Amino acid sequence: MGRLNFLHHPYAFIIAFTVILMSLEAATTTADEDRQVYIVYLGSLPKGEFSPMSQHLSVLDEVLEGSSSTDSLVRSYQRSFNGFAARLTEKEREKLANKEGVVSVFPNRIYKPQTTGSWDFMGLSETHQPKRAFESDVIIGMFDTGIWPESQSFSDIGFGPPPKKWKGVCSGGQNFTCNKKIIGARIYNPQDHFDTSVRDLNGHGTHTASIAAGNNVKNVSLHGFAGGMARGGVPSARIAVYKVCFPEGCAGADIMAAFDDAISDGVDIISISLGFDEVVVLDQDPIAIGAFHAMAGGVLTVQSAGNAGPGVFSVNSIAPWIITVAASTIDRKIIDRVVLGNGTALTGRSFNYHPSNGTMYPLIYGRAASIARKCTAFLEKACSADCLNVTAVKGKILLCDSAWGDEGALKFGAAGTIILDNGETSVVPIPTTTLGDEGLKIARSYFNSTKKPTAKILKSETVKDFSAPVVATFSSRGPNSLIPEIMKPDISAPGVDILAAFSPVPILPDNKSVDYNILSGTSMSCPHVAGVGAYIKSFHPTWSPSAVRSALMTTARPMNDSASLHGTLSFGAGHLDPVKAVNPGLVYETSKADYIQMLCNIGYNTTMVRQISGDNSTCPKGKKSSPKDLNYPTMTVYVKQLRPFRVEFPRTVTNVGPSNSTYKAEVVAGKHPRMKVEVNPPTVSFKKEMEKKSFVVAVTGKGMTMEKPVESASLVWSDGTHSVRSPIFVYTDMLIDF
User: pLDDT per residue over 591-603, tens digit each?
Assistant: First the structure.
């Protein structure tokens, strides 16, 4: 067969052109497939005449290959700080990251929600007299799944027009209307997304918003549990909703856009019950970046600590300009009991309104109910639905070593289930109770020693919990893995079994929808602190974010170290006290310049901090100081194991109490302290309000050991009326084995 002479073929040009076009299309398709959304952070907005959008498109034009800047650009941040989100290839990302003026380029990570007797428990009762007129001037920005505006918790009856400072909009999308309570709404849905309204289809955002600022609503409960009045911390405050979360999660690019808007809209507090699965460096964390610029604009950001406990180093909200909130119990506890066939009664937890009517049902253990040799022993004991034998399960109470065994029990017609207590409870459609390790051990022993084991599960009941507050097992613990000298979490607040408003759209596991629901998580504790922050702002509208944070932390109630796993590492300064927080006496003020100095101390250079700050900040040359020197309400240091140490903490307090006051220092420590704390000077006197006084706290010790790697004490400044408490933490690298 003769070879085709392609160059002289009559259709050679057409064929060649077609091949080139196909190659170009294939290359373009491949490039587009390789693109992902990155966030490009450019720092503060430049002063003077400046067009951020033009800059963003110009920067993109310089690095893009095979795509236009307008097609690539996803979001432009230009109201409160400078940056954008764009679809880039890895090569384009690298070129952008190396350009002058770019602080950081990082992936568009997906964040997740951290899934009302609580106010009475903290002393902020319904009869407590707020400054209603001032409360109504406070605006809380909620970054979440949206809101259900028709809920009674958000009625605007009795509300006047929005505060004059409000510059936001009601852009809630389809079928959504704001009112005088919900004064702003924005949605950050992806293009072509089915969800086009700020209306909450999940319930999480409605729940958190009503905790922070919901109206007083009488006679609410969840199937009769936790009945009473639902109310927020500042019922007269206004709410601005920024919907950044959708079924697939909460995109970092959208969170950044919400910060960009909220700061300029005029909110006073931002509550963000969202988090990522791991610690992210500050200049690549959308929440840390947005919160920094919020702080610079006088806006306080409150974030949930996360639900990754009880392990140490599990907290991922680590920026010092954010208040990080742990979750703890309240004095109301919902329990139920399972009675074994031998008469033994075991107390557990769940919202069980489906009692077994006194009937004893056969009891079967997950391993005995599993199909032989189909699964590992671990999955069998956990009652994995893929392992269970429907015949063995049906009509029996299923005993499981995991917290998720109720899924298989429900699927295969079990009469009930006994599962592991992981610190969270939820409504289930069949009788269920959760037991701790010891309770499960007793139930397993009974099953293994009895020929025909039986059990019955009783209806849940509400009891007083005299041990509260105790940090929840699920709540993320410190220390701070990125900045060891800044203790996180900062404070603890109610986050277990919290009743609040809910969206009627989600169908619960019992096939019902509800207007009020009980949820647990640091997502619930976060808006408690945001609400109290707003409460403080209603009394002190000119206070800075750091002054509000200091008031929250230094008036927090001390918690029992031994009651919460990992003690002080789980609750920071202690448990939120709303009443005392409005009158702290002294505050630890931390300025934007102080935070910039701290950034220098952890490795940022002058070029970077100037880009971030938007001013002429300079990192000092030579030996750097330590992040422990930041004027923070707590004092924390990491020391090497078994080595003697001496550490000094310079601090400055500002008098926000009466003029002509004198405070004396007292050090509170355990019975057998392993460190010595000295304060110099031990007395500070003030002649006028807003006067500042400095002091140094010196901490010495012979060395920390593997057996007890954490030591804590407290410095308390007192004038006879106010007690300004600052916890002191010393820990060593053996903590990971703790």
Answer: 999 999 999 999 9
User: Which comes out higher in pLDDT, residue 463 or 61?
Assistant: 61
Helix (H) or strand (E) holding 622: none
47, 309, 551, 674, 730 from 712: Cα distances, Å? 45, 21, 21, 9, 6
Residue 113 is given by DSSP the state E
The per-residue pLDDT for range 336-390, each reduced to its tens digit, is: 889 999 999 999 888 777 656 678 999 999 999 999 888 899 999 999 989 999 9
Residue whose tokens read 């893995």: 481
* Dist. CA 222–CA 709, nearest whole Å: 43
- Alpha carbon distance 38, 252 (integer Å): 9
Whether residue 383 contacts residue 400, with contact meaning beta carbons closer than 8 Å, is answered with yes
33 CB burial (10 A radius; 0-12, 13-18, 19+): exposed
Report whether pLDDT(2) > 70: no
**Sequence-ordered alpha helix ranges (H) in 557-675:** 568-571, 578-581, 592-601, 606-613
Q: Cα separations (Å) of 447 from 101, 191, 418? A: 67, 55, 12
Cα diameter, the chain: 109
Amino acid in position 603: G
Compute the half-sphere exposure of residue 668: CA atoms within 13 Å on the CB side of its CA.
Answer: 12
Catalytic residues: 144, 204, 523
Question: What CA–CA distance (Å, rounded) separates 128 from 106?
Answer: 47
Q: Which residues contact 549 (CB under 8 A, 6 or more apart)?
A: 300, 323, 490, 590, 633
What residues does 654 pair with on adjacent strands? Answer: 587, 692
Which residues share a beta bridge with 77? Answer: 83
